[in-house]
Structure formats: structure tokens, C-alpha cells
Amino acid sequence: MHPELLALLADGRLRSGQGLAALLGVSRAAVWKAVERLRAQGIDVDAEPRRGYRLKGAVELFDVGRIRAELDANATAVLRSLELKFEVDSTNSHLLERRAPPYGFADVCLCELQHAGRGRRGRAWIAPFGSGLAVSLSWTFRDTIRDLPALSLCVGVALVRALSRTGARGLRLKWPNDLWFEDRKIGGVLTELRAEAAGPAHVVIGLGLNVALPPEARRAIEAAGAPYAVGALADACPEPPSRNRVVGLAVNELIAMLPEFERSGFAPFRAEWLALDALRDRSVQVVMGEERIAGRALGVDDGGALCVSVGGRKRKFVSGEVSLRLEDQPR
Ligand code: BTN
User: Fold this and answer.
1) What digits encode the pLDDT tens for the residues 214-225?
2) Is position 185 annotated as part of the catalytic site?
């Protein structure tokens, strides 16, 4: 019942307990319980004595109809399912547990609350309620994918294309596919593969994006140990972006990119990736286990490996095995 209550409160206006109870067909005590449940999930609901309940601010909840309205003809034809869950442990895990879509089709899952979001390199991904998004797309390639690192880079390019359609300017990619604006991370991607040695490959691409993050949410993410400064898509946009629209645009671009990647690999995306490279010619530090290697970033090679000039020699680093830190990253 608490998701329905949330939908009634989403506009941020004050509503009486009695009115809510009548709309939901439950008792006032049941409304109070549902309010407590929302609060336990980190959703700020104000209770004003004898007046009613309201959210701290209005939220644009996800809406399957609004997302579908943003899909282009190709995505509409190819999307087998669009599953909106109120809460889930991880949208990536959820799709990995499901049967893969048939070749040429996609499944998408997104949620309002993700309790155990997973990031790259074993980190947790925190998506504060209402201000970000957690969405995953499941896809099947005809043959096993050998260059998963390059796929990650193509995903980054597709997502920048999508986000730029919201009016965002100045977006960058930090190798391999973190979404950045002004040296702050606004989003990240976790691409996971289920494949046999030969035959079809099932890939789940998960996007976590801060759409419009209040300062306290930024601080909470940084305090939880994020090794980077945190930003949001809205910082790069002239108007506050719609969460539903962002999901639709991301699905369109991912679905357009995947067959092209399957046909031609990284090559058609490389120039665009290089133009978006946030680190190019900057001092970087590559962390590999205990080892820290300082150098100057030189972009990526044909396979998507990061190239770094270290003591005058070019060294290459492959996605997934290294992490990268700017020596001059702002905090
Ligand atoms: C990163 O560490 O930068 C990647 C973060 C990816 C988070 C997204 S949120 C949707 C999907 N579900 C998950 O559990 N993780 C990804």
C-alpha cells in the first residue's frame, strides 16, 4: 500500500490523513503505518499535527506510459518488456536472474528504490530516492563477446548521446565509462556478462545516474566513501531534466548502439569517445592492487585500453583490471 500512498503524495502537497485513507480505502491507522514504512526506506514524509502529510518536496515518480512515450520506433519494436519495480535489491541482479531476451530484443528494469545497488570494482551504488535513477537493460548477442571492455566504452558514448538530448552540455567520460560533468561523477555503468565459451552472450547494462541531487544527498554519497566528487545531470542542464525522459532516451540510444557494436565493434565509436575523454593529457594515477602508477593520460587504443605515458613510455591498461584517479581531482 505504501507505493500507492507515495503516488498520492508525489506532488509535494499537504494531504489529510482522512483524505488519504478514503482515497486508499484503508483506515487512518493504516495510512500512518504506510507513512512509517516510507520513512524506514529513507523517504522524508512530514507529518503536520491535525493537518496531514506531505513529502519534503515534489518528486517525479517513474511512469511506464511516460517512459514509453519517449521511445523511438526502433526501441518500441525491440523492447520486449519494461518492468518498473517499486523496490528491488539491484536492477542488474534482477535481470541477470531472469531468462535472457531472444536475440534482437531487450528487457529493461528500473525501480524507485534500489536497496543493494552494485557498482564497479565491488563497490556499492547509492541512489537516493527520487533524485536519481537505477535502470538496467538486458540484451543477447549472437556470439560470445570477446571485447567486453570496448562494449563498456560504447555504452558510455551512447549514454552521453542520450543525456545530451536533455539539453545537457559539457558531459564527459572518465575511462572506462563514468559519466562526468566538471570533474564530478554524475553516473556510472556496470556491464555484466553471462556467456558460455561459445554461443550467445547475455549482457546486462546497468546505469546509475544522479539526475538532480540535493547537497545533503551528495554529501551522504561522498561520506559513504565515494572516491570521487559527486555531481548530477541537472548541473549540466538549462532546465531540470525529467527522470522518465532520461530513461526513455537512454533506452533508445543503448538499443541503437548494441547492434552497431555487434557489427563493427569499437571503431565507429572511438572518435566520439576520444572527444569526450575527461582525462586526456591530464595527470593521472592508475591503481592496480597495491601499485600506483603516475603518468599522463593519452586516450584509448582501438580495443578501448587506456593509454598512459609513464616516464616517457606508453603503457596500456585494460578495463576492469585497473582503477584510475586524477591527482588533481576536486573534493
Ligand atoms: C559504478 O560503479 O560506477 C557503476 C554503478 C552502476 C550502478 C547501476 S544502478 C542500476 C544497476 N543496478 C545495479 O546494481 N548497479 C547498476
Assistant:
1) 888 888 888 888
2) yes
